[in-house]
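Notes from the 1:1 (GR / supervisor)

We went over the backlog. Supervisor wanted to see one worked example end to end before approving the batch request, so GR pasted a single chain during the call. The sequence is below; no edits were made to it. Supervisor asked that the structure be written out right there so they could see what the output format looks like.
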Amino acid sequence: MEDEPKKKTINNISFTSDNFMFSFGTEDGFYIYNIKPFELVSHLKLEGGILFTEILDHSNLIIFVGDGTSQKYPNNKVFFWDESNQKFISEIRLNQQITNIKINSEYIFVITINQVFVFYIKTLENKEKYETYSHNENGVFTLCKNRRKTLFAFPEKELGYVKIIQFENEIVERKEIKILTHVSKIACLSLSYDGKYISTASDAGTIIRIFKIDTEEMTHEFRRGTEKAKIFSLEFSPTNEFFSCTSDRGTIHIFNMIKDKKEDTSGRKKDDSIFSGLKRLMRIPKKILITPRSFACFRNGDYKCFSVFGPNEELYVVSCDGNGKFYEVSFDKKNGGETTNAQVYILRENNEEENEKKEDNKENEENVSPGK
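Structure output shown during the call:
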């Protein structure tokens, strides 16, 4: 009896800023899927694993980083792929391992274990470099999805702090603020589409905090659970009414940011609040917030998932387990509760070969040129 073919590991999921498409790398290349209608757009086979992928919205440009298993695609280079012409067009090389990448119409952000590099997309010139804490091996970083803003955030050198930066006039002017969000290592971040809020989770994975950026005050505190968990994604809905969280616990939590914005009714005195140990450092509003559990949830039992919201507040979930799955989840926006209403698609099915585009190694190698 022949052994079943080995399933190729799906690495980190990346959505376009409008959440219309997503991409991911595997041991033999990368895949691109369209969400509405759901279909495989491209599968580029490469001789080596791909760890990170990013698609520039409404363009033919894809950037990716190898997983280090192949000399052709090491983990210290960002490769630029022209999907229309099926060729490499450039690359950025660093002297250290890359732990994350992001892109918008103006800049490319390259994250390493202890630094954030900003490159101008037109020239690939390195414009800025920031220090993060020294062990950002998970590449914690977030970029606002609003194409009219260049707003991003990452963990500061000081434990528990987040630095938020907004570029204006091609980095000639910029705004920077620093917020204390946790007393332990930050594990995940996200910015709302309008750039007004930032969400944070620590490596404990039990509490999620949301801060209003202009006032630096915490507006919400949500409890994911009581047991430690690894948080993979945090995401605001387009209207900031809902908020989602995925973790290694197999449940996708949905919180209601409007309904759960309440005062603490526990009867505690102000000086006796749950934040008393941090009140001198963290800006806490006068109305102490309760820590509600999720408004709605969807249980798929998968270990590693990433979620975003669609244009009508529906939830899209991509699972990295096995061959991978895509879920379009509907939930009761009025009453919440657990939902099982999901349309499920299996990723990387047998018919993918009809859509994939194979790499011509010789031609592509000739088209690789270093970033200038």
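Supervisor's comment: The radius of gyration is 21 Å.
Batch request approved.
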